[in-house]
Amino acid sequence: MPHAPRSASQPELAALFATVQQHFQAVIVPLWQGPGWNADMALPYEALDAEHQPLPPQRYRAMACARQLYLFSSLIGQVPGAQERAAALFRSLQQHFHDAEHGGWFYSIDAQGAPLDQRKDLYTHAFILFACAHYWDKVREPLVESVLNAVLEVLAKRFATSDGLYEASLQRDWSSLNSGPLQNPLMHLAEAFLATLSAREDAAVHNALLALCAAMQKRFIDPQHGVLMEKPLGAVDNWFEPGHQFEWFFLLESSSLLRGSLLHASLTRAFGFTEQLGVDQSSGAVRAMLTLDGHSKDATQRIWAQAEYLRALTLRPDADSAVLRQLRALQQHSLHSRGWFECRDENGEVSRQDMPSTTPYHLATCYRGLADYLR
Predict the structure, then answer these.
(1) Which 3-state string (H, E, C) describes 230-265?
(2) Mean pLDDT across the chain, nearest whole number?
(3) What are phi and psi of 69, to 5 degrees?
(4) What pLDDT is stored for residue 282 in this prediction?
(5) Which of 2-11, 182-191, 292-301 has the lowest mean pLDDT?
(6) Where exactly are the transmembrane stretches of this chain (predicted)?
(7) Fewer CB in 10 Å around end: N or C, the chain?
(8) pLDDT of residue 161
(9) How far, in Å, CA of 175 to CA of 164, rounded?
(10) What is the pTM for the complete model shown?
(11) Lowest-pLDDT range, 78-82, 124-128, 138-142, 316-320?
(12) Integer Cα distance of 235 and 276 in angstroms
């Protein structure tokens, strides 16, 4: 999208982004090349503590493996060893998590590598598609594309429902858990479809994405405010998450295919309402979970939501000063010399000292959006 002429804050923004990106490549990425990497399993540990020691492993999730596959795929050509690490993660995804009997991928394995939670969930499969699309785009290896095609087949045959939506979770053998659709996995599926379409032309994916967005508009958008609810309209105890609003806005606004859709119009209309209820304007902190009347269900301030708000701001009109303010907030409140703070509580106090292996994905996609903005 064309951007407005640059403002006086542009040089300061570029300098701050260079500092933050240097922190990412010099501090955060090496955590997952060194102490965060279990070389025996060829998998990332789930999390590191503040001293960079792995938390005792209880499980390894396919989704975490896939997010790290995306991370190192995105760094091929920029960070030494990134391509080798991506290749190892791709092999591990197949070796540890693929279900040879029923197809698809397990949710998790235990610390010894045996299947743990053997259900098939949409969130996991969306991230496997997302990661494989990015990895294949970089390496163009036939085996990677064959896995990408296998995930697409599972999504269409097993998860898809007749209305353009997808079941959130199924048993190992694909029998029903009556989960119904949920917002978050559907958002990551839309993200994965967009990644696939950026890597190749695919009419089936193109049509599935349009059908998904039309169904989201119909089943999840609150008609009064335009926000996307976390559960379908009419569900008991429903809520919305500002971080997810901003994440959806970015996906829709950045896509020439989806920009101008009814869903895009709803999220654009809801942006100000989401900021008003969901963002602390003094600190830039994004609240976790809200009801439509502004009641907080969870006031935790998570780094991923900060990053998604920042990324969304890059696609708003006349955004330079807002982007600079939010990047400064991310740096000051969430990043530190040895890594990052995952969560602060509603009073702004650090409430989690550990650093999960899944978070660098959010920072990588945020910084990619910033780099595109500054370009």
Answers:
(1) CCCCCCCCCCECHHHHHHHHHHHHCCCCCCCCHHHH
(2) 96
(3) -60, -45
(4) 87
(5) 2-11
(6) none
(7) C
(8) 97
(9) 19
(10) 0.97
(11) 316-320
(12) 24
Q: What is the mean pLDDT of residues 67-88?
A: 98
Tokens encoding 257: 């295919």
The alpha carbon dihedral of 161, 167, 173, 176 has a sign of negative
What domains, with CATH codes, occur in the chain?
A: 60-323 (1.50.10.10)
DSSP-based three-state secondary structure for 166: strand
Burial 96-131 (b: 16+ CB within 10 A, else e): bbebeeeebbbbbbeeeeeebbeebbbbbbbbbbbb
* Identity at 300, one-letter amino acid code: T
Beta strands in the chain (DSSP E): 37-38, 43-44, 47-48, 59-61, 108-110, 120-121, 169-170, 287-290, 296-302, 335-336, 339-340, 343-344, 350-352, 355-356
Going 206 to 208 to 210 to 216, the CA torsion angle's sign is negative
Cβ(45)–Cβ(34) below 8 Å: no
- Mapping DSSP to helix (H, G, I), strand (E, B) and coil, where does residue 56 land? coil
Asked if residue 120 lies in contact with residue 171, where contact means CB atoms within 8 angstroms, the answer is yes
